[in-house]
Amino acid sequence: MIRSAFASLVLTALLLVLVVGVVLVPIAMRLPDPLAVLDMFVLGPFRNPRHTGNIVEMATPAMMCGLAVAIMFRAGMFNLGVEGAFFLGGLATVATVLVVPLPGWAMAPVGLLVGAVVGSSICAVPGYLKARYEASELVSSLMLNFAALFLGLFIVNYFLRDPAAGAMVSYKIPVDARLPRLVGGTRIHLGTIVAVAACLIGAVYLFMTRGGFESRIVGLNPGFAAHLGLPIRWITLRAQLIGGLIAAGAGGIEMLGIYQRFSWQSLPGNGWTGVVAAILARDNPILIIPAALFLSYLQVGGDLIARNFDVPSEAVGLIQALVLLVVTSSAIMRNPRLMRFIQGRSNAATKTGEPKAAERSPA
Amino acid sequence: MTELDLMGLVDFVPAVLRVTTPILLAALGVLISDRAGVLNIGVEGMMLSGAFAGVVASAATGSATAGLLAAIVAGGLLGAVLAAAVQILKSDLILSGIALNIAAAAGTTLLLFLMTGDKGMSGSLASKVLPNVAIPWIADVPVLGTLLSGHHVLTYAAFLAVPGVGIFLTRTPLGLRLRAVGESPESAAIAGINVVRVQVMALIVSGAFAGTGGAFLSMGYVSWFSQDMSAGRGFIALAAEVMGHGGASGTMFASLLLGAAEAIAVALQGRGLPSELMQTVPYVVPVVALVVYARRRQRLLARA
C-alpha cells in the first residue's frame, strides 16, 4: 500500500516536470536566451526572499480553496462554486469592515465571519437545489459564479466605491482590520497559519470523525449509504456548506491579508487553482498543502518570466490544465507496467536506506 | 396590447435571436455529447477557441468563410482532444472538460499575445465578419420582414440545425446508435456498436457546434476577439441543454428563453437600471429555470 502510494508520488512528480517542460521549453526557445528563461522560472522564485514569500502568500488561498473542493468532491458533488464563493466572501468581508462600525479588534473576526457566511451561499445554494430538487449542481454552481461576480461589481460600484481612487475600487480597508504580517520583507500573513491549520483540521474531519466518514460513504457509494439509512440529503448539503464557508473565508482572508482595497474586476481564478490543487492531492487535505505550494511556485515563476521576458504569465494556465489532465489520467496513474517499473526502482532505493520518504507519504 | 407595444415587441425579436444564436449552437453541441453519454463541459473553452480561430484565420486569409471553417475545425479538434483525454488517457470526463476550459482561456490569450503583442484584444488584426442575410420578398413585408429576414447567417444556421439535429438523433441509424451508447454503453457494446468510436465522433461534432457558436461571437456579435469573450455562454448552453429535456426542440426553446432573458436585461440596462445588476440576469434565470424544471420532473415521477 505504502509502496504503491510512493510510486504514484514519484510518477506524479515526474509527470509534473514533464508537463512544465512541454509548455515552457517551446515558449523559451522563441527568445534569444532560452536557458535564462528556464533558469528564471525554475530557480528565480528562490533567489529572493520576497519571491519565496510570494509562493507562500499565493499558496494560502489555494490551500483553503483546495480544501473546500476536496470536502465537497469527497461527498460526491461536482460543486464548482468555489470561485464565486471566494469572490463573494472577499467582498462581503471588505463591505463589513467598511460599513459596520466596529471596534478595531473586532473588525477582522466579524468581517471574516460575515464574509464566510455570505459567500458560502454560492456553494450552499447549488448543494441545496441538488439535495432538494435534483437540479444539476454542476450547472447551477457555474451559473452562480458569474451571478456573484456581477452582483459584487454592482455592490462595489454603488456602495463601496472610493471616488478619489481612479479605478472602480472600494474605500481603503481600515488598518485595524488587516491581518498581521508574520515575516519581515514578505507579505506572509496570519492567514497562512489559518490555512495550514484548516487543512490539518480538514484531514481530521474527513478521516477521523463520524461526519467526515459519513460524507465519504455518501460520495463513494450513495446506494450503500441509503442502505445504511444515512440521511444522504443532509450529509451532502452539510459538505457543501462546510466547503462554501471555507472557500468564502479564504476570500476574506486574502482580502484582509494582502489587499489595500477591494479591487477584483473579474473572478480571480483562485477557485480553479483550488480545484487543480485538490485533484493533484487526490482530495487529501494534508497533501493539499504541498500541492498548493507547488502550484503557487509555478505561478511565481510564471510571473517572474512575464516581468523579465516577453512571455505572458498565462503560460502557467496551460501548465495547470495539463497537470489536471495527466493527474486524473488513470491510464498513466494506474498503468500497471509503469507502476511496477517505478516500484522496482523505489524498492532498490528503500534497501539503500531511504525508507522515510515512503513512510511519510500518506496513502 | 396597443399597436405601439406590439411593434416594440417585433423590433425586440432580432435582439433575442442575436443573443440566442451562440447559446443555441453551443447547446446543440452539448445535446449531442450528452445523448452519447459524454457531457461536454469543455464547451466554454471550445467556443472561446472557435472565436479566436475565426478571427485569426479570417484576418490571415481575408475571407470570412475561411474564418468560419477554422472556427469549426478548432472546435472539432478540441472535441477530439477531449475525446482522447477520456478514451486514451482515461481521464475523468468532467475534470478534463474543466482542464480544457482553463487551457483555452490561457492558450488563446497566450497566442493572441504572441501574434499581436496585445493580451486583451485582437484590434490590430483585420478580421472579417460573416454577413447578415436578407431574404428576398419576405424582407419587404412589414412585420414578417423584421421577424424572419435580415438576421445573421449563423442565426439561420443555428435554427435550421435544430430540426437537423432532432432528425439525426431520433430518425437515423447513427442517431439511434448514439443514443443507445448514451443510455447504456454496456448493452450497446453487446449489440455490436463501437462505443468508443461513437463517443469520439459525438465529442468532435459537439466541439464543431461550439466552435461555430464561437465564430458568431467574434465574427457577428462583434468584429474582434477579446480575452475570455465567451463569458460563461458555454455554461449557459449547458443549462439550456439540461432544461431542454434532452431533445433538440426543447433545447431550442430553453435557449430562446435564456436569450430573451439576456436581451431584456440588456434593454433595461439602456433604460438606466444598474448594468452590473442586469448582467446577473442571464446567469440567475437558468438556475431558476433548472429548479422549476427539476420540480416538475419530481412531481411527474411522484405521480407515476
TrEMBL record, chain A:
Q: Where do the TM regions start and end?
A: 54-73, 85-104, 110-129, 141-160, 188-208, 271-295, 315-333
Which keywords accompany this UniProt record? Cell membrane, Membrane, Sugar transport, Transmembrane, Transmembrane helix, Transport
- Is Metal-binding one of the keywords UniProt gives this record? no
Q: Where in the cell is it found?
A: Cell membrane
Classify the source by domain of life: Bacteria
Where does this chain mainly localize? membrane
**According to its record, how does it sit in the membrane?**
Multi-pass membrane protein
Q: Does the keyword Transferase apply?
A: no
Name of the molecule in the record: Simple sugar transport system permease protein
Which species is listed as the source? Kaistia geumhonensis
Automatic annotation (TrEMBL), chain B:
| Ranges annotated as spanning the membrane | 12-31, 38-60, 66-86, 93-115, 153-170, 200-224, 277-294
Record keywords, A-Z: Cell membrane, Membrane, Sugar transport, Transmembrane, Transmembrane helix, Transport
Q: Which InterPro entries match?
A: ABC_transp_permease
Compartments where found: Cell membrane
Q: How does it sit in the membrane?
A: Multi-pass membrane protein
Matching Pfam families:
BPD_transp_2
Record-given protein name: Simple sugar transport system permease protein
What species was this sequence derived from? Kaistia geumhonensis
